[in-house]
Amino acid sequence: MLAACSTGDGDSDADNDSNPGSDAGGSGEQAPVEPAQRPPVFRYPPAPGAPASDVADASQVRAAMDRLDAQLQVGEIDEDALADVIEFGDARHAWYVADLMRFFGPGEAGTELVDAFGALAGTSIDDDPDSERSVWLSATNHLIAWDTPAYPDYRADKAGLFLLVEPGWEPFFTDTDADIDWRLLSWGGVLIDDREPGDTDGCPRGCIPALDDPAVTDADGGDWYPDDAIVFGIVEGDEALAIPKNIAEIHEMFNLTLGDRRFGVPYCTLCGAAQAYRTDDAVTAGGADELPVLRTSGLLSRSNKVMYDLRTQSVFDTFTGEAVSGPLQDEDIVLEETTVVRTTWGEWKVAHPDTTIIAEDGGIGRSYDLDPLRGRDDDGPIFPIGPADDRLPVQELVVGVITTDGTPVAFPADEARAILSVGDVVSAAGVELVADGGGLRAVDAVTGEPIPSHEAFWFAWSQFHPTTELWQV
Fold it and tell me: Pick from 102, 120, 151: which residue ends a domain?
């Protein structure tokens, strides 16, 4: 059942170090594909019908689902129970079948699940190119594209399955008021990071270990990092910090102090997005003095990492900073975001000569490969995202901004840099981009006041902000 899990010797390098059913990655040396040469976009077939309301004999399928759950406790699928679910004929149960695909790889059980999905959905996934990489990926993408509703007991059934993998997720699933779309929640291949703040022992069971209060050096002390390598730059008051991308790819989460402010900095390798949230304004449950400590849960939502607060077990929407479960959701906590500039180390330290940079060993005596992911994401999203906005290639980097009136705007990063390099203006929806050490940051086009921004892959920005405006030359 845990065939998809790859925990290695403790720490995992990324949420999806074990790409389900595919050989992800590549050399990264292929020439870029021109828009006219892009392969045709796969068109999902018409959605299956779903009951408008609960049917009278739902107790029969409930009994079958309970038998499925009981047999899963020993890592097996009850074939007769699965057959009864198929006979019931409710396409909504295809969500649970797709979840099972995540945990059962190729083999007899996997074939049964593919057949069950086809029977419930009324279509085959064989024509989908994604099915060659992973049947689970293809099946889930179909359901997202169709916006197939969940059946009434789906959250509880999904909890029963997922908690077999990681009991630490129980507070997320048992919060019935959580603003989480359970259909979109998937497993990233690693377990929860529930280590105490400052723990440097890594994750014996296999998690993505956050780095708390990393050691830093001045710019001269950062000569170990190549000038052409990517950093994520943050400025707070008179202080600047560079986070090397190779260290971010290992830890994916930092809790640190900069400019007398406390920050949580998640990096979603799958989305290409580093973000910085001020956590010292967030009031924890009951008005306690302890600030949130952000951790990686090991779960994903449409290929975006799901982060949570270690103190209160509250889940956050990583892209928006909004608490979506737990005590912090009850208190309507939304973390305040600040700008993260994606650039090279050489350009950042020239623009910010007094910057610090995370130390070569992170302050924990660890060594970091300069390219730990080795092109893992070069071939596109390897976790379900559903249909992608085809105005741009899925993994083109954009600078994402939310205007003061709440309008999301995206600027293709390479095009924006090219325009700025010849002295022209990049502006849309009242937002102007300005250069910063080889990277980009956003300001109000009229007042010049900073507006929080960060870079992300287009598929990630557009799916979490589906109404986004897109700046074009």
Answer: 151
Candidates 186, 138, 202; CA nearest to 4 is 186
State the DSSP H helix or E strand holding residue 130, giving kind and residue range, or none if neither: helix 130-133
Domains in the chain, number: 2
pTM of this structure? 0.89
- Answer with the one of 134, 151, 168 that is the final residue of a domain: 151
379: its two tokens: 């071939």
**Using one digit for the tens of pLDDT, what is the confidence trace for 17-27?**
433 323 323 32
Can you tell me the distance from the alpha carbon of 357 to that of 330, in angstroms, rounded to the nearest whole number? 37
Q: Which domain holds residue 410?
A: 397-470
> Which tokens belong to 281?
């304004």
71 found inside a domain: yes
Q: Which of 460, 398, 389, 386 is nearest to 431 (CA)?
A: 398
Quote the CA–CA distance of 433 and 416 in Å, as a whole number.
8
309 φψ region: left (φ > 0), alpha (ψ -120 to 50), beta (else): beta
- The two tokens of residue 242 are 């560079």
Q: Please calculate the CA angle 444-447-452 and round it to the nearest 5 degrees.
A: 30
Nearest Cα to 395, choosing from 303, 271, 307, 284? 271
> Quick check: is 88 in a domain?
yes
Dihedral in degrees, nearest 10, Cα atoms 377, 380, 386, 390: 140
CA dist., res. 331 & res. 322, Å (int): 11
Q: Give the pairing of strands 408-412 and 469-470.
A: parallel
- Distance (Å, whole) CA 115 – CA 445: 55
Is position 91 within any domain? yes
Question: In the chain, what is the greatest distance between 2 CA atoms, to the nearest angstrom?
Answer: 72
pLDDT in tens, 251-288: 999 999 999 999 999 999 999 999 999 999 886 554 55
Q: Report if residue 404 sits inside a domain.
A: yes
Tell me how far apart the alpha carbons of residues 301 and 362 are, in angstroms, rounded to a whole number. 28
How far, in Å, are 108, 288, 321 from residue 175 at the CA level? 35, 21, 19
